[in-house]
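Field reference: sequence -> structure
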Amino acid sequence: MTDTHAHLDFLEPEELEEVKAHLPELKAVLTLGVDPSRWEKTLSLAQENVYAAIGLHPTSAHLFSPEVEEALLHYAGHGRVKAIGETGLDYYWTPETKAAQLRALDFQAALAEERGLPLVLHVRSKDASAEEDLAAWLLLHRPKRAVLHAFGGHPALERAGLEAGAYFSFAGPLTYKKNEALREAAKRLPKDRLLVETDTPFLPPEPHRGRRNRPHYVRHTLAKLAEVLGMGLKEAEALTDQNAQVCFGW
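Structure field:
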């Protein structure tokens, strides 16, 4: 199993010890540092089968500056860094920084292109406006390798992601009883573009909903994806492991 999106730096020490005990169950984990104060901690955790992504989250876009650009350039060259992000658009928490979010997104997309790394994309809004804007951005910029993190099933983003050749990463919400439309979307998508993740410590799958997430809980999302695709668990595991390998190159 591969967890393509986690935030191990958000975990408490005792939670990290639990995670480390379960790491042998996983082929790989990608842990993402989302603002300058977290990048060093993220890299320190990227050992053995844990790899790192470095980026400026859209809710931290107000921090974007020439100094942050320089730091991102520096960290992108680290041997354990396998992606840039997460970046993207978030109008749910910080709609007032839309212009800064777009500037940070454009810079990180160019950096990912320059370094030959995938770009991990976040999107969230109350009225789907961020999803519509990110769909338009994807069609305009068409990054060579993009991952739609915690894909929520928005139709315009699905269409744009397909046209741009993006990967679609599914988190705990795929397992939630009311998310049948999301499961239908997973069924429609090309199998070689499917990934699974936890977004640890957020978005826990059933039966851990309401608790803090862990990378090894990805098995529940994987099991639901296997069910949706009409596959056995081992077949779905091999599929998503291979997709992650191709995408991130670890």
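Note: The first strand starts at residue 2 and ends at 6.
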